[in-house]
From TrEMBL:
<dbReference type="Pfam" id="PF00364">
    <property type="entry name" value="Biotin_lipoyl"/>
</dbReference>
<protein>
    <recommendedName>
        <fullName>Dihydrolipoamide acetyltransferase component of pyruvate dehydrogenase complex</fullName>
        <ecNumber>2.3.1.-</ecNumber>
    </recommendedName>
</protein>
<keyword id="KW-0012">Acyltransferase</keyword>
<keyword id="KW-0450">Lipoyl</keyword>
<feature type="compositionally biased region" description="Basic and acidic residues">
    <location>
        <begin position="82"/>
        <end position="94"/>
    </location>
</feature>
<dbReference type="InterPro" id="IPR023213">
    <property type="entry name" value="CAT-like_dom_sf"/>
</dbReference>
<dbReference type="InterPro" id="IPR036625">
    <property type="entry name" value="E3-bd_dom_sf"/>
</dbReference>
<dbReference type="GO" id="GO:0005737">
    <property type="term" value="C:cytoplasm"/>
</dbReference>
<feature type="region of interest" description="Disordered">
    <location>
        <begin position="217"/>
        <end position="256"/>
    </location>
</feature>
<dbReference type="Pfam" id="PF02817">
    <property type="entry name" value="E3_binding"/>
</dbReference>
<keyword id="KW-0808">Transferase</keyword>
<dbReference type="InterPro" id="IPR011053">
    <property type="entry name" value="Single_hybrid_motif"/>
</dbReference>
<dbReference type="Pfam" id="PF00198">
    <property type="entry name" value="2-oxoacid_dh"/>
</dbReference>
<feature type="domain" description="Peripheral subunit-binding (PSBD)">
    <location>
        <begin position="158"/>
        <end position="195"/>
    </location>
</feature>
<feature type="region of interest" description="Disordered">
    <location>
        <begin position="76"/>
        <end position="133"/>
    </location>
</feature>
<dbReference type="InterPro" id="IPR003016">
    <property type="entry name" value="2-oxoA_DH_lipoyl-BS"/>
</dbReference>
<dbReference type="InterPro" id="IPR000089">
    <property type="entry name" value="Biotin_lipoyl"/>
</dbReference>
Length: 462
């Protein structure tokens, strides 16, 4: 009888309990080599290529594209080739099946310290040697280098896994997409443009080449909608339509949360259970500003000034052990809204950046979030957060504090308000500010002084 080996989904290096199958690179009956791509799996932060742990024949695949697989659950069965060299059972593969860490909880104090590097990301210094050589799939040497997705050529098309996942989601045939990236690489924008103009549908005829400037800003042509079907008390089969009782409102089909939204739901749930939030609101008066200024850069500069004035809010709090860690540096987590869900990348060392450095850092993070190339290390470890929801709408809010952070600043929509001044009234441009903080770690007085320092910096002319 053939020796069947079952491969269990390893921890993909981000501490999450599951991952979503994006695409299988093999089918049952195929022969695969050791470390060849087995499947693309989507976590909350990236699309990861899972390599084969054996050389041999694939006998079973547990799940289809779109299915959620829990960490440690069976992913695939193999019949190893007895004549091929296999990885030794005791040989390190980088797979990690240790106890899961709770989302948002600080790491245990084992003597290691995490500091921000000059280039962004985190660098471990000091402490004991780690027992595991890494928590990502495949053999890997530990170190301080950030590992990002690599461009792979499949079927003559060069693209990173995140681009392939987007193309699959938008039903775009990558072979028909006109690449604009370096060395003929298909980019996220290429896929989105192809989806918008309908030039590369899956299964359709090859698209006719069009000039790059033609039709770039035109909406896709859609078929004329037909008449909407009439609803009535009788179905098409002539039977009475079944209705729900009044106590059960009609709803659509349940949709399982995946990837980023699934992780966001967990993080928000944990934050709700762990934090004691309190919110202060006020308005920053921008009337004294001279010339045109970068509003986001000024806002970040004001947060840095407030962190220096009241360090208690630029801190982490461990509710289990009742310990507080105040930070000298300021790493600001900036909430970025996407169709897939909420990302919070960290703008490292904001306290030493000038306006140009802040703008360049924000643009880099937004670009990496959009094309899903941002390293996982850039999505954690920030010391305070910013939600600039006023870019869309809203004046005041109660933003969610995600532990271990102590505070988050929310910036509302700018407005022109009538304000009272000596001798009459004036119209001033103002920015609504909301400060939510964990009342277990900071007092109301500390929060109020932090908010005043922030407002004072925003009110300065330059």
């Amino acid at each position: 009888m053939a020796d069947i080996k079952t491969f269990h989904l390893p921890d993909l290096g981000e501490g999450l309990p599951d991952a979503t199958i994006v695409e299988w690179h093999v089918k049952v009956g195929d022969t695969i080599k050791l470390d060849a791509p087995l499947a693309s799996m989507e976590t909350a932060k990236a699309v990861v290529e899972v390599p084969s742990p054996y050389t041999g024949k694939v006998t079973k695949l547990y799940g289809a594209a779109g299915d959620v697989i829990e960490t440690g659950a069976a992913l695939a069965d193999f019949e190893p080739d007895p004549n091929a060299k296999q990885r030794a059972e005791a040989e390190s593969t980088g797979h990690h099946h240790g106890p899961k860490k709770s989302v948002g909880s600080p790491a245990p104090d084992d003597g290691n310290k995490v500091v921000a590097s000059d280039e962004g990301g985190e660098v471990e210094t000091g402490g004991k040697d780690r027992e595991d050589e890494g928590t990502v799939v495949g053999a890997m040497i530990s170190g301080n280098h950030v590992h990002v997705e690599q461009v792979a050529s499949v079927g003559g098309v060069k693209a990173v896994p995140a681009v392939r996942a987007l193309a699959k989601k938008l039903k775009v045939d990558l072979a028909k997409v006109r690449p604009t990236g370096a060395d003929g690489v298909v980019t996220m924008k290429d896929v989105k443009d192809a989806a918008a103009n309908g030039s590369a549908p899956i299964g359709g005829a090859p698209a006719r080449a069009v000039p790059a400037s033609a039709g770039r800003h035109l909406a896709p042509e859609l078929p004329e909608p037909g008449p909407a079907p009439q609803r009535g008390p009788v179905s098409l089969a002539g039977k009475p339509v079944r209705t729900a009782p009044p106590s059960q409102p009609a709803t659509g089909q349940p949709e399982q949360l995946k990837g980023v939204r699934r992780n966001m739901a967990r993080v928000m749930s944990d934050a709700h259970a762990q934090v004691v939030p309190t919110t202060l609101v006020d308005d920053a008066d921008l009337h004294a500003w001279i010339g045109k200024q970068d509003i986001t850069a000024r806002l970040i500069r004001a947060i840095v000034a407030a962190c220096k004035a009241v360090p208690a809010l630029n801190a982490w709090f461990d509710g289990k052990n009742l310990t507080r860690t105040m930070h000298r540096h300021v790493d600001i987590g900036i909430a970025v809204d996407t169709e897939d869900g909420l990302f919070v990348p960290a703008l490292r060392n904001a306290d030493v950046l000038d306006g140009a450095g802040i703008r360049a850092g924000i643009q880099r993070l937004r670009t990496q979030v959009e094309d899903r190339s941002i390293p996982p290390s850039e999505l954690s470890g920030y010391t305070i957060s910013l939600s600039n929801f006023g870019m869309f709408a809203g004046r005041y809010a109660t933003p969610v504090v995600v532990p271990p952070c102590v505070a988050i600043v929310g910036a509302g929509k700018l407005s022109h308000d009538v304000v009272a001044v000596m001798g009459g009234i004036e119209v001033h441009r103002r920015m609504p500010i909301s400060l939510t903080f964990d009342h277990r770690a900071a007092t109301g007085g500390e929060a109020a002084r932090f908010l005043k320092a922030l407002l004072d910096d925003l009110a300065s002319p330059q």
